[in-house]
Amino acid sequence: MYSNKTTILVTAEEMKQIEAEIFSAGMPIASLMEKVALKTAQKITELYPLNRKKVSVGFIIGCGHNGGDGLVIARELYHKGYDVTIYVPLIAKLKDLTAQHFQYVQSLGISTVQNITSLSSCDFIVDGLFGFGLTRKIVDDLAEDIKTVNSWQKPIISVDIPSGINSDTGAVLGVAIRAKYTLCLGLYKKGIWQDKALEYIGQVKRIDFDIPSSFIDKITSESPSAKLLTVDRVKEILPLPRHVTTYKYKQGHLLLICGSKEYVGAALLSAYGARSSGVGMVTIVVPESLKPLINSQLPEILVIGCRETSLGSIETLPLLDWEKYQWVCCGMGLTKEAVSVVEKVISSGCDILLDADALNIVANYYLLDSLKNRQGKTVLTPHDGEFERLFPDFSFVGMADRIEETRQGAIALNATILRKGAKTIISDNIHTWIIPHGTPALARGGSGDVLSGFIGGLLAQNSFTDTINVDTVAAAAWLHQQGGILASEDLSTLGVDGVTLSQYILKAVNKLKGNGQ
Ligand SMILES: NC(=O)C1=CN([C@@H]2O[C@H](COP(=O)(O)OP(=O)(O)OC[C@H]3O[C@@H](n4cnc5c(N)ncnc54)[C@H](OP(=O)(O)O)[C@@H]3O)[C@@H](O)[C@H]2O)[C@@H](O)CC1
Ligand SMILES: Nc1ncnc2c1ncn2[C@@H]1O[C@H](COP(=O)(O)OP(=O)(O)O)[C@@H](O)[C@H]1O
Ligand SMILES: [K+]
């Protein structure tokens, strides 16, 4: 079982406790700082190698151990031949270890300047101002310094976390460094993966410093932690390789209930998404008038046309043999008037995924209790607007920690929630996955319809395995983003329409074979 502990996201408190375990086990604080900073310095020389020409580096040094790290890095780059200048705005309140490093750096003759503008001629900047010890808003001169550095549009490498970013919620505390690289120390801080931090973190790299996994377990195993989903984990979750003796019904039967005259494409795109999952069978329930189109576009899909309203929505569902289907996906392009359809799906007792208008209907008709207490598993795939509509007056809505807010939603509705966004969050009441890589190319109508069908198809297949739903939904979201990334590489950010996306998801699946399988 792939159980990489270092993809876990930790809060400042958890990191402090993990480091306290390291210190109480005998590792001197100064030694850990030295080890961490040496590895960080090494990474910086890889990012900005000297290659014979002079490279000048400006350091912003804080008063805490982030500053201590920065000073050790400054010293090491100096010894390697970089032109180093340091600026120590909080010189009046340096912690002891930081003060010692400052004294040594000065004894080496490394130049210390009195104001930030003296760094403006450096090739790049290292931000060792604040780490996870930042506790309050950055104001006054320090805030001005950060605005000044950002204004230079120069590469900034942030040690541990961009200074000014709350390491739990990702919120900007007044003002924050806009980093080109964030070199996260030891374990990923939770704030780095919150959508709010996205425009400040740049490219994130983790600097490993051999934290014993028993210490990580000891501190984090009690609390439900979020983790980054990695390619290795996705490979484990996918229903691959197939048994040679399999047959189509062993590969799952998915029921899609979606579409309307107004939103024909949503039904089509959900079906394309389902097709890309490789699910054994797909049955789609749509208003009668959509039937010929679906049949012509996706000949392998069984189409049940049903009576439609004057507006072209599904009026009533026909009698369905619900037992036949491993999963039901409902809502894509359904319109908000198909209330009885959603009520029937909720009371069907099947395992269901609700998206788009089905979510709006649940919100508008207060079906939350019937959702929470229903038989069968529930997956919800709201974007932020749908999420807020679902939980208008719940205490957790609007909390600073968006990852935790999503988990609270999952608990409230006894469901697995996929929260759409630049960083997709997938959570049930215990497990939370973050999809680390994404592309804004997906920010267009139809991407979500493809996603719902694709998730449904994977869930239907994995219903024959012991894979938990939150893992399957996360793997689907990971492949959906990867499909978008691959498509934008070939067709540009503007070229990732829903049909193209559904085809590139398969390229993303195929690429997994290349990952050292
Ligand atoms: N522990 C270890 O050995 C290791 C730790 N590691 C490194 O240390 C970092 C954590 O170190 P840290 O705890 O010293 O916190 P850090 O962010 O450096 O400084 C916070 C200081 O700033 C101050 N301050 C806060 N807010 C402020 C504000 N708005 N405006 C002005 N001042 C403000 C506050 O002092 P205060 O003003 O509250 O008295 C506090 O003392 C961590 O991110 C990692 O980089 C790694 O190297 C591994 C080894
Ligand atoms: N900036 C972005 N970066 C990455 N993914 C995005 C971004 N914007 C949207 N997406 C993804 O695109 C999809 C949009 O879904 P949704 O808003 O439901 O679209 P629709 O319902 O119109 O198909 C979601 O999977 C979301 O995660
Ligand atoms: K920093």
What does this structure look like?
With 517 residues, the chain is α/β, with parallel strands linked by helices. It folds into two domains: 4-228, YjeF N-terminal domain (Rossmann fold, 3-Layer(aba) Sandwich); 231-513, 3-Layer(aba) Sandwich (UDP-N-acetylmuramoyl-L-alanine:D-glutamate ligase). 40% of the residues lie in helices and 15% in strands. It has helices spanning 12-24, 29-47, 65-79, 96-107, 140-151, 198-201, 213-220, 231-237, 264-276, 291-297, 339-347, 356-364, 368-372, 384-390, 402-412, 447-462, 469-491, 498-512, and strands at 9-10, 56-61, 83-87, 111-113, 124-128, 156-159, 181-185, 188-189, 203-207, 226-228, 253-257, 281-287, 302-306, 327-330, 352-354, 378-380, 416-419, 425-427, 432-434. The protein has a ten-stranded mixed beta sheet with strand order 10-19-18-17-16-15-14-11-12-13, sandwiched between helices. Helix 11 (339-347) links the parallel strand 14 and strand 15 (352-354). The longest helix is centred in the last third of the chain and has 23 residues, at 469-491. The mean pLDDT is 96. Bound molecules: ligand NPW, adenosine-5'-diphosphate and potassium ion. Ligand NPW binds at residues 19, 29, 32-33, 36, 62-67, 69, 95, 130-138, 142, 159-160, 185.
Bound molecules: ligand NPW, adenosine-5'-diphosphate, potassium ion
Task: Decide which structural class fits the backbone.
Answer: alpha/beta
Determine and state the CATH class of the largest domain: Alpha Beta
CATH topology of the largest domain: UDP-N-acetylmuramoyl-L-alanine:D-glutamate ligase
Radius of gyration: 26 Å
Distance between the termini: 15 Å
CATH level-4 homologous superfamily of the largest domain: Ribokinase
Q: What is the number of domains?
A: 2
Taken from the alpha-carbon principal axes, the silhouette is: elongated
Overall pLDDT metric? 96
Quickly give the CATH architecture of the largest domain: 3-Layer(aba) Sandwich
Helix content: 25-40%
Q: Total number of β-strand segments?
A: 19
Low-confidence stretches are none
Strand order of the main beta sheet, please? 10-19-18-17-16-15-14-11-12-13
Please report which band the strand proportion falls in: under 5%, 5-15%, 15-25%, 25-35%, 35-45% or over 45%: 5-15%
Q: Largest sheet at a glance?
A: 10 strands, mixed
- The number of helical segments is 18
Family: Belongs to the NnrE/AIBP family.
Binding site for K(+): 66, 127, 163
Binding site for AMP: 420-424, 448
Domain YjeF N-terminal: 15-217
